[in-house]
Design a protein that fits this description.
With 477 residues, this protein is an alpha/beta fold. Helices cover 31% and strands 25% of the residues. The active site is at 456 (proton acceptor).
Length: 477
């Protein structure tokens, strides 16, 4: 007889492992299945985020920023660096160490919370008779079948390839290959000026690559508030990121040691570029490969995502899905919140995810972070609003840090003063945005933030000043 569980989670990424831990905390006999492997074929839970996404990219972003500061900024602080050189092998090794620490941390959390972990690929076998659960096959070093009353699918997403240009992770790279380049390319091409493209382009530009970013859309960072996006574009251009908008990608031809990209620019002129490496970051597709959902009738939507309602319920009784494999933003923290909410719903509680207050971050330098509506969205919706901005160049802590680029922007309802959106480009934007998320969750007004005492000197004072600026009473600018 197969092992019986109250909850079986398929996928050990941010949505999956968090769902499993929360389910176990609520008293359910819980299992989590994950197939990621480390270099020694051992378990590496954490999904794309931990292994080839959020965590390793931030490690390389931090390392590459240190390298750039040592080469260009330290002298201003009275720190002279002689004979600066790059040890890329050590940089990549540090990244791998951080990945393993996170993998091991998740395995420890499973043990601590009494979650049974299975290393392998999970797939549906059949639905049990009389609604008594589902049989799930685990294909790993050994193969076995387990049974779960409730199933949570958290299988994540895969990088989308361009037609006719499959990833070989040597010349044509997804995020996986972009994080493992063993020699700094002289010329690096990036197709897609989204989060992954800009972050990876920033890493390798800092380390010495000449980076060209090709973006099909005519506007830069169309999902970002227009004023913030324009400011970011100027700053990236000043750094040396060559960003071309409105391009139409044609043939991509890999050679022995380089790859040729033919494209039409925004003026209709034919162009050709040769790169040592090419990163393709044009979005991600839901990962349902090998899930075998069709044998139990699991429904997908027209875009290939698992179809769910507002509570993450699928069309099948007691089968749920969370994270990148369902609708909504492909963000690790969104997946985590859905995972917690589903575990609580299984327990009869009222799990909740507010999509309107999910923060977004691009970890470039300067960082870009936002929550809520953009100014262009409010205009399109006909919402009367007030705006206030404050530049970091007027912030004492930013001056002391030596990073005064960017601004904080508040958008508030013209009548009620309720905060509708906050947008930041500048130092530590990823940390500063949390105050705005909390404020919006409590439906605070801009005046509420303006009247809160913020520590001096701190970057957070820019948030207070932007809130004051909504009422045209900024004190330091």
């Amino acid at each position: 007889m197969s092992k019986q569980f109250d909850v079986v989670v398929i996928g050990g990424g941010p949505g999956g492992y968090i769902a499993a831990i929360r389910a176990a905390q609520l008293g359910f006999n819980t299992a989590c299945i994950d197939e990621w492997k480390n270099a020694k074929n051992g378990p590496a839970p954490g999904g794309t985020c931990t292994n080839v996404g959020c965590i390793p990219s931030k490690a390389l972003l931090q390392s590459s920023e240190h390298f750039e500061h040592a080469g260009h900024s330290f002298a201003e602080h009275g720190i002279d660096v002689a004979g600066l050189s790059l040890n890329l092998g050590q940089m990549l090794a540090r990244k791998e160490t951080i990945i393993k620490q996170n993998n091991d941390g998740i395995l420890y959390l499973f043990k601590k919370n009494k979650v049974t972990f299975f290393h392998g690929r999970g797939s549906f076998v059949k639905a049990g008779a009389n609604g008594d659960g589902y049989e799930i096959n685990v294909a790993g070093a050994t193969e076995e079948t387990i049974t779960g009353k409730h199933i949570i699918v958290a299988t994540g997403s895969n990088a989308r390839a361009l037609p006719g240009a499959d990833f070989d992770e040597k010349l044509i790279l997804s995020n996986t290959g972009a994080l493992a380049i063993d020699e700094v390319p002289k010329k690096l091409g990036v197709i897609g000026a989204g989060v992954i493209g800009l972050e990876m382009g920033s890493v390798w530009r800092r380390l010495g690559s000449e980076v060209t970013v090709l973006e099909a859309l005519p506007a830069f960072l169309g999902a970002v508030d227009d004023q913030i996006a324009k400011e970011a574009s100027k700053l990236f251009a000043k750094q040396g990121l060559n960003i071309h908008l409105g391009v139409n990608i044609g043939a991509i031809t890999p050679g022995k040691k380089d790859v040729t990209v033919e494209y039409t620019d925004n003026k209709g002129a034919a162009q050709k570029a040769v790169f040592d490496k090419l990163i393709v970051s044009i979005g991600r597709t839901p990962n349902t490969i090998g899930l075998n959902g069709d044998v139990v009738g699991l429904q997908l939507d027209e875009r290939g995502f698992i179809a769910v309602d507002n509570n993450c319920k699928t069309n099948l009784p007691n089968v749920w899905a969370v994270g990148d494999v369902v609708r909504g933003p492909m963000l690790a923290h969104k997946a985590e919140e859905e995972g917690v909410a589903v575990a609580e719903r299984i327990a009869g509680q009222h799990g909740h995810v507010n999509f309107n207050t999910i923060p977004w971050v691009i970890y470039t330098s300067p960082e870009i972070a936002w929550v809520g509506k953009t100014e262009q969205q409010l205009k399109a919706e006909g919402v009367a609003y007030k705006a206030g901005t404050f530049p970091f160049m007027a912030n004492g802590r930013a001056r002391a840090l030596g990073d005064t680029s960017g601004m904080v922007k508040f958008l508030a309802d013209a009548k009620s003063d309720e905060i509708l959106g906050v947008h930041i480009v500048g130092p530590m934007a990823s940390e500063l945005i949390s105050e705005a998320v909390v404020a919006m969750e409590f439906r605070a007004s801009a005046e509420d933030i303006a009247r809160i005492c913020h520590a001096h000197p701190s970057l957070s004072e820019a948030t207070k000043e932007a809130a004051l600026a909504v009422d045209k009473r900024s004190l330091n600018f």
